[in-house]
Design goal:
single chain; mainly alpha; 4 helices
Length: 113
């Protein structure tokens, strides 16, 4: 009759060591994730308080900045030469600039600067 297979008493069970290592890695991963969540919450609260103390609404801050950027002169289309000359004429007609300032500005515009 065949003898039943008995594991060697010297050979350790590989699954016992792996389960202990898995538990350690799992706990470390959970601690890292929890730390990331805590840091995110602390930064969000800090940014909220900073925006509030500066007089801004933290919930609409991104929209406010986007609106300001879109309305700024940096994104406005460039005026044509004719439009800029007409603006100079209008300023001179209203007396905002003198005729000497108008002549200097026209020369500068027409020279391409």
């Amino acid at each position: 009759m065949d003898e039943p297979f008995l594991p060697s008493p010297v050979a350790p069970d590989p699954f016992v060591a792996a389960s202990g290592a898995f538990g350690t890695v799992f706990v470390l991963a959970c601690l890292i994730v929890a730390g990331g969540i805590v840091v995110s919450i602390v930064l969000a609260i800090r940014n909220y308080n900073k925006a509030r103390s500066a007089g801004h609404d933290p919930f609409t801050l991104q929209t406010d900045l986007a609106t300001r950027a879109l309305d700024s002169e940096l994104l406005a289309p460039k005026q044509t030469l004719e439009q800029r000359l007409a603006e100079l004429d209008d300023l001179a007609t209203r007396g905002v600039i003198t005729s000497e300032e108008r002549a200097a500005a026209r020369t500068e515009l027409l020279s391409g600067r």
